[in-house]
Every structure is written in structure tokens, then in C-alpha cells.
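Quick one, C-alpha cells below. Sequence please?
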């Protein structure tokens, strides 16, 4: 019998359980939406493997900061008191809600008509003037730290993404407020040490992607490059608890998966979050390195091939893949911790590459 993860189970599958009465529909729905990482999960990574480190990897000296456009207006005490045109409101984000049990917060403008084109242009110029020298310095640090390794191919990239900047308080920290955001904006690069936690949610409306393909591509002078479909199988190696391997896979003619390449987590060297308050989407600029594994030892290679070959393509589950019972881990060392199904179109010119990606993700 094939293994059915929690998000695939139907109410009928729980009806035969030895309970006096079936659970109410609301409870059944909640149970079906439980993350794979829930403790007490049967076989696989939940009970036998320690939780993999999902922490984003930052290089030594990495600057991570946030700015709003337009900037905060000065309060009566240089920022004390209420911001007249801005507010924080809960933002629906299922991945964060599954982990924390609460919605993150987004900064939104209460009165878009109060936007000043002059202050916005000045803020954009200030961010660009601040970002460029930091980008050059971060690039030098990254290049100096890239010790050549025979088993890895390292690529340094500058990536701009659109999405939504979301805020959460660190565990045990103060609640998020407009005042804490003011302080974070003032802190600049020291904001990396703040108790304010920032996330970047990259789900955008399909209308936005359509508009980019129809108009933005033309305005930027881009031409169609390629379109591809991939499945990404995230694997936790107990002997490398600080990183996760991602197997980028293609679909063969017989419907099976083949590993195209294997990567470690990206390493971030510079991150600039920008809340575009009078636009529908925010911006993140990031300098990062991708680490592609060129050679694998036989144990790792065989484990990855076994996990990938055992996957069953199923459009009805989150991430598009499921595993037969007992096949989602290899011994005590390797386990599946996430699956993505992506389709993308790429456009490019001599200096830029634009990727429009549709992704179905499930991170355990």
C-alpha cells in the first residue's frame, strides 16, 4: 500500500479509526493540513532523524537590512509616536502559519494617495547609492572565500525577486510594531542583529506573471530563452546537519525521474529587503553563491538515486511527489524533507535573465 502523507488523507481514511465518533469536519481539515514535520509521525524523518537545519545560511560579514519606500516620515520625537499613513496587518502565509501558528505581519499604506513622488525618488536613489558599494565589498569577500574544491562548482549571482516582505518577532522578543520597524530601518546593516525576523514570500498573483510576460519582457528588451519543468527533492543528510541537498530532477520519457544536478543550500552575502508601500509587490536584492556538487561519494550517490527513483509523481499532493511506505528515508542517515514541482519560462538579453516560475512547494 502506498504511503499517503497527512495532506493527502481524506476524511474517509480516518473514519475506520478506532474512535467512538468521527472527528468534526473542521478538525479533519486541520489534521489533513498538518506538516510532515509533526512529531509522532510514523516512519521517515519525523521520528528517527533529527530535524534538519532549515536556517538560511549567511556568510560571515553578510549584511541583511530592510527599508521602506517611501521612507518613514519623522515623528515628533524622531520617530516616536504613530505613523500617520502606515499600518501593520496580518498576511496569510501558509508555510509560516504551519510553523508558528500565527499569521506574519505586512506593512501596508493606509492612504496611497498621500504618496510623494519626490520622497519616493529620493529614497530609491539613497538605497541604490548605499547598496552599490556594499555589493562591491560583498562580492570581494565572497570571491576571497571561495576556496577551490574539486567536488563543488560555485556560482556567484545577484538576484532580484518580487514578493512580499513579512515580519515576525523572534521567539521571546518584543511584538512587532511600527516603532520596531522604524528602529530596523534606522539600524541599516546593524539591523542584521535585530530581534525582528524578516521573511520574503515569493507567491505572486498569476496576473502579475502574465503582465511581466506580456509587457515587462518587451520593455526590458528580453527574448525568450527556454522553458523547463523540474522536480526538486530536498534531502537531509544526518552527517551534514548544517545543510540540505537539493536534487533537481527531470522527467524521463517513461515517467520516471532522473537527477539533473545536486546542490547545497545557497549562501547569502548581501540581502536588501525593500517594502514598496504604494505598489502591490515588494523587492528583495540578494548576492548569493550556489554550490553545485560535481562529484559524490558512492554512499551519497546511491542514496540519492534510490530516493529519487522511489518517488511517485502525483499531481494531487503538495509538491507533486509521494513515496511508498518506508521509501522516504534510507537507513538512519538520509531522509526526504521537502519536494517542489516547478515550471518556468526564461527570457534574457546580454546582461539580464528573467525567470517566471510557477512552483508547487511542500517543505516538511
Amino acid at each position: 500500500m502506498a504511503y499517503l502523507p497527512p495532506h493527502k488523507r481524506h476524511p474517509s481514511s480516518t473514519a475506520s479509526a478506532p474512535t467512538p465518533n468521527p472527528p468534526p469536519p473542521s478538525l479533519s481539515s486541520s489534521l489533513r493540513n498538518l506538516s510532515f514535520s509533526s512529531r509522532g509521525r510514523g516512519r521517515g524523518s519525523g521520528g528517527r532523524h533529527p530535524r534538519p537545519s532549515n536556517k538560511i545560511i549567511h556568510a560571515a560579514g553578510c549584511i541583511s537590512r530592510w527599508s521602506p519606500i517611501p521612507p518613514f516620515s519623522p515623528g515628533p520625537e524622531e520617530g516616536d509616536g504613530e505613523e500617520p499613513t502606515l499600518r501593520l496587518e496580518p498576511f496569510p502565509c501558509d508555510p509560516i502559519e504551519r510553523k508558528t501558528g500565527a499569521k506574519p505581519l505586512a506593512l501596508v499604506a493606509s492612504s496611497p494617495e498621500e504618496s510623494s513622488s519626490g520622497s519616493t525618488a529620493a529614497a530609491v536613489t539613497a538605497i541604490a547609492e548605499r547598496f552599490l558599494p556594499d555589493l562591491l565589498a560583498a562580492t570581494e569577500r565572497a570571491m576571497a572565500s571561495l576556496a577551490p574544491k574539486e567536488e563543488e562548482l560555485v556560482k556567484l549571482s545577484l538576484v532580484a525577486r518580487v514578493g512580499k516582505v513579512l515580519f515576525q518577532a523572534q521567539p521571546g522578543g518584543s511584538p512587532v510594531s511600527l516603532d520596531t520597524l522604524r528602529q530596523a530601518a534606522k539600524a541599516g546593516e546593524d539591523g542584521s542583529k535585530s530581534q525582528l525576523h524578516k521573511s520574503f514570500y515569493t507567491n505572486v498573483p498569476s496576473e502579475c506573471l502574465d503582465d511581466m510576460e506580456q509587457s515587462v519582457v518587451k520593455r526590458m528588451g528580453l527574448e525568450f530563452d527556454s522553458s523547463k519543468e523540474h522536480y526538486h527533492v530536498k534531502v537531509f543528510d544526518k552527517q551534514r546537519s548544517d545543510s540540505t541537498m537539493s536534487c533537481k530532477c527531470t522527467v524521463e520519457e517513461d515517467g520516471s525521474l532522473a537527477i539533473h544536478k545536486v546542490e547545497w543550500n545557497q549562501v547569502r552575502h548581501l540581502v536588501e529587503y525593500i517594502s514598496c508601500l504604494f505598489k502591490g509587490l515588494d523587492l528583495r536584492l540578494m548576492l548569493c553563491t550556489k554550490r553545485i556538487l560535481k562529484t559524490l561519494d558512492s554512499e551519497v550517490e546511491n542514496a540519492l538515486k534510490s530516493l529519487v527513483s522511489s518517488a511517485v509523481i502525483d499531481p494531487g499532493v503538495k509538491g507533486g511527489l509521494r513515496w511508498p511506505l518506508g521509501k522516504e528515508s534510507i537507513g538512519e542517515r538520509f531522509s526526504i524533507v521537502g519536494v517542489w514541482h516547478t515550471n518556468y519560462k526564461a527570457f534574457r538579453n546580454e546582461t539580464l535573465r528573467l525567470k517566471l516560475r510557477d512552483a508547487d512547494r511542500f517543505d516538511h
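Residues 9-20, 22-50, 78-82 have pLDDT under 50 and may be disordered. The chain has one domain: 43-363.
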